[in-house]
Design brief:
heterodimer; A: 108 residues; mainly beta; 3-stranded antiparallel beta sheet; 10 strands; B: 121 residues; 7-stranded mixed beta sheet; 4-stranded antiparallel beta sheet
Chain lengths: 108, 121
């Protein structure tokens, strides 16, 4: 099983700042089959990034994904108040598909 | 518009059984693999089961293997999860989720609103 470890656990930043979220895999994720999801309280998760760096439809270009192998990053270039949420990474390379534990982004 | 609507959750005693359903609309149901994902209160997401479009390939997480059974009815555009021998650790919101594309390696592009299962005496 591929274990995904996200850091930090919580990120507290001001509007306009840059957020950098990390997702590290216990073994290489082939094909860059790595996705990022955003989840707001009481809501289902929503797809943000797939294939490590491809934005899902409707996702603004403030969100970008990068990385390969075992190290992946989600960057939010200019935080807005509505970006307050939990962000989770997921690998869909090898069953069982696994998720990271999530990073909570708080907007001051 | 792709829609997934889960139902069947509720309060169940330890050791009991429950059957969840997921009704799909807005896409050709018979051409997509579907997953069940759960989220315990205050915890992260946990994938628990996958079924491909023709019910040929089925996977389970170790945490539910032997207790849960996934199935689908393509004619009724519905997905099911039969859950047996439920324990407190199974308390969670259960989501059905469709792949973004119809291929095997695809992220979870569409999600239902979830149904809450509470296992408690």
């Amino acid at each position: 099983e591929i274990v995904l470890t996200q850091s930090p656990g919580t990120l507290s930043l001001s509007p306009g700042e840059r957020a950098t979220l990390s997702c590290r895999a216990s073994q290489s994720v082939s094909g860059s089959y790595l996705a990022w999801y955003r989840q707001k309280p009481g809501q289902a998760p929503g797809l943000l990034i797939y294939g490590a760096s491809n934005r899902a439809p409707g996702i603004p270009d403030r969100f970008s994904g990068s990385g390969s192998g075992t190290d992946f990053t989600l960057t939010i270039s200019r935080l807005e108040p509505e970006d307050s949420a939990v962000y989770s990474c997921q690998q869909y390379d090898t069953s069982p598909w696994t998720f990271g534990q999530g990073t909570k982004v708080e907007i001051k | 518009e792709v829609q997934l609507v889960e139902s069947g959750g509720g309060l169940i005693q330890p050791g009991g059984s429950l059957r969840l359903s997921c009704a799909a609309s807005g896409f050709t149901f018979s051409t997509y693999g579907i997953n069940w994902v759960r989220q315990a209160p205050g915890k992260g997401l946990e994938w628990i089961s996958y079924i491909d479009s023709s019910s040929t390939t089925i996977y389970y997480a170790d945490s539910v293997k032997g207790r849960f059974t996934i199935s689908r009815d393509n004619a009724k555009k519905s997905l099911f999860l039969q859950m047996n021998s439920l324990g407190a650790d199974d308390t969670a919101v259960y989501y059905c989720s469709r792949g973004y594309s119809g291929s095997y390696h695809t992220p979870f592009g569409y999600w239902g609103q979830g149904t809450l299962v509470t296992v408690s005496s």
